[in-house]
């Protein structure tokens, strides 16, 4: 579902490159984890995949489409859940979702039904007409995910979807992701919560300093590195020094 | 089209949620327009229909003083104060009152000024009669030059002084000419006698062969309007208020970028252009609505404060198109400011202060015509100048679309430059 080859990116006025020849690939219909310390290049990679940021060089293929020539097709097939709550805080969940759904060209009746179903699935039906700014952190995260699901993307990309949420919300989100995968969709997911990644992902790629460090199944990586958890593998490969 | 409609609806929803913002966007410019029109009413009326009290000290009591007084009173701008507390104003009293600043102007006509003018007229008539070989002589004596005294309070504006001195000079010349002509008539009558069948010559009527008639240069004389506080301030501050729409536009653009909603929108397939068009359309409609509400204040509210009603010309289509183009330019400026700055704290003060500067040089505060020559050229760099000039073209000069299209093209040009800067900034940000 994703093939990245020799991707380079240095932001203007940045002292160091964000990506220094990153190459990695993930197969179809899996939950893949893109892991790395702060500043490793995870968000830059996702931004390039979505067409928000232009790479300096290298190539990206998403679901068989080359990013350089098929960005519009890729946009139709992917759903991206950004790290920030990318919703209008003064609008209600329904108003936000109606707008996003209409921009995706979903018909009114179908859209209404989808919104109703997803709000129910994510436990937000009672707060459907409440402004997003009055939501708790967990509710905001859940609404943020729904907004990326309305067009039924084949590949769902989530940038730290469970950051700062309570245990109940986290469980609901993870259960939904597993269910979504079972329906035949692919998922790429970034997180700092390595226990969560170990539990959820079929495959993980650890990147650091804009390069791939290691890629494989969590269990294989633990065996190869004589570790009892993915966190130990991560610290072993990326070091203990602080990253700000 | 669906995207545009969805975006217009979404912007409306966002706008509706911010009731304080709605109130500020509509009420503050409305209050500003009303207050500025009221405050500037006096300066605008000063040289038009405000009446100035002039202390009139008549020590002459003759024909000359009588005719000059009547002549000045015919000018709407002046009112002669001949008595104070039921007594004729005296010279010393008049000087003291001007000195205290209680009156701005005093005119003192010395004793014998009429007699001097009559004597001078008799001298002229006798001289002319003698050269034409006429017999007889009107009574005359040696000239004793007399000065008409005029006192101004030092705060009196130079233009006001000139206006009064011109009026006095004109009256003096008129009265002298009338007396000379009357004396000549009298002399010619004396020559020919009052024999039946000889029509008397009305020299004064013959001298009025050329008169001055003020006409309007507007097409077909549709409008004959002088500018006043309402005619200047209502469109001027309505344009100023309309440009303040950049505050919500720039603020929302930056917030969308900060909270990630812009990123989400940009990840949606299809051109961002239709979404941008939807956003711009909403603000253009909003700005146009705001502009017409300001004009309605000039029609309905200001007359209740004793000000004249706003005259809006006779080209409603041209007015609507002009308002839409001005709103488009203002919206484009908002998009430009929103893209140039990273935070609302940078964008909003810049946006607000830049509008104040553009309005000051663009003739919003005071008409461009009274700015120094250099600034009159600088004014053309402000879109507000072209906007106000277009509105004046419709309201004051009675023009239609044919008259204002050059202004609309310039405004389009400003809008295109603003959008180009915004596009360039956004592209650079992607790198």
TrEMBL record, chain A:
Pfam families from the UniProt entry? ABC_tran
Spans through the membrane: none
Q: Where is the ABC transporter domain?
A: 2-234
Entry keyword set: ATP-binding, Nodulation, Nucleotide-binding, Transport
Instruction: Please name the SUPFAM superfamilies in this protein's record.
Output: P-loop containing nucleoside triphosphate hydrolases (SSF52540)
Q: Which residues form the signal peptide?
A: none
Looking at the record's lineage, which domain of life comes first? Bacteria
Tell me which InterPro entries the record gives. Answer: AAA+_ATPase, ABC_transporter-like_ATP-bd, ABC_transporter-like_CS, ABC_transporter_ATP-binding, P-loop_NTPase
Give the GO molecular function terms. ATP binding
SMART domains linked to this entry: AAA (SM00382)
Its family remark reads:
Belongs to the ABC transporter superfamily.
- What name does this protein carry? ABC transporter ATP-binding protein
Q: What is the lineage of its organism?
A: Bacteria, Pseudomonadati, Bacteroidota, Chitinophagia, Chitinophagales
UniProtKB/TrEMBL annotation, chain B:
According to the UniProt entry, the coiled-coil residues are: none
Q: What is its main location?
A: membrane
Query: What InterPro entries has UniProt attached to this entry?
Result: ABC-2_transporter_component, ABC2_TM, ABC2_TM_bact-type
PROSITE patterns membership = ABC_TM2
Q: Membrane topology for this entry? A: Multi-pass membrane protein
Kindly indicate whether the keyword Hydrolase belongs to this entry.
no
What UniProt keywords are attached to this protein's entry? Cell membrane, Membrane, Transmembrane, Transmembrane helix, Transport
Q: Which PANTHER family match?
A: MEMBRANE COMPONENT OF ABC TRANSPORTER YHHJ-RELATED, TRANSPORT PERMEASE PROTEIN
What is stated as this protein's family in its record? Belongs to the ABC-2 integral membrane protein family.
Q: What is the name of this protein?
A: ABC transmembrane type-2 domain-containing protein
The protein's organism comes out as Flavihumibacter stibioxidans
